[in-house]
Amino acid sequence: MVLGRLRLGAASRGVLAITSGTLVGQIIVAVATPFLSRMYPPEAFGAFSTVLAVASAIGPATALKFDSAILLPKKEADARNLLGLAILSTTVVAVLSGIVMAFLGPVLLPGMTDAIPFAALWIGALILTTGLFTSLVQAALRSKSYGLVGWRSAIQSIGTTVAQLSFGLLGPSPSGLLGGALLGRLLGFGALARSLRPLLAARGGASMRQLAHTYWRSPVVLAPSSLLNALGSQLPLILLSAWFGAGAAGQLGMAQRLVFLPAALIGAALAQVFGAEIAQRLRDGAGSSRALYLRATWRISAVAVPMCTLILVLSPWALPWILGADWEASGYLAQGMAISASVSLIVSPLSQVYTVHQSVASLAIDASRVALILGAGAIALALGLGVVETVWVIYGAQVVNYIATWLYGLRIVSRKVSHASRDQDLPEQELPLA
To answer: Whose CA is closest to 101, among 45, 132, 59, 55?
Structure first.
């Protein structure tokens, strides 16, 4: 088995609860996809995917990472005020993002704004709900409500799927897909409401200004890194939408939905387990984790390589058969993503070493990913390449970044742990949390 001898220890039940809910949510999305693809045309799905990509690129950093700091204070009152600071940051960033997209959207993404009335408003709403959601999740994790955190993913997926199918029966438009996504997130809020009681009952605590000064690394260091990481994931679809229109973006978005499903299903669990094992070795002063890093690489490769082969061989005929005749191009786009998706399955879990070792190199890695994608896209555009060729070039650039990420990660774990670092407290990102 891929997880093999990678141990999780005392946190296993929490990780299992979180991962199980996430897996169920992803399975629901996968089962619903063939129905949605026959209900909504590629152009509608492309406009929806573009809005979702823009919101997802900004969303993880919307709270300026004050949400991550909610886990740290000893006093419940301080944690409550940090939650308030995260919600305030989220609201301001969401409003500003909506205003910016109202001006830039028609220029940069005309296909999206033509297909979706008030696209900037949808983007602002999705960014707002994303930031609020991540903040509430951290509050739930602080109260150790692992079951709520895990199963809110399943509840959100069920709500989104039912709503999108229902709206599709009324009229298959991008607004129906967006409305379903927004409704699903609102249902997720309800699932997390119980976990807020300990925080809401707290009184006093440091002011938001004092907390912003104490946790200044969140907006200054963590937020830019999170923004770059999310942008790197969403940039290919945004570029394709800008250059080739909503139809091409829809084909890519649907291919992404299925090709990256194994990474979503397996990668999250692997990241939790590997990160916890690396953190345990660091606490124990066990020295180099090089052997563990290499062993995990080979074991995950045993899944990734066959997955890549299957996608390359089967996707041109399998995806149109699964999705419907309108989605023939998605099979060829899936081939262009196959190597990147498979390498990502290997590298993403192992990249936990950057967090555990508090390596500032993660910021450079994320920035280089964005730069490589933009550079590759510019070359493809200058050469006049078609949609399929452009996807191969862009995702090829991602592979280069993944290889660099893996190599530097190997360098990190190959170093001996100093005696001083053994006594340091682990940062909040090391916790085996979603």
So the answer is: 55
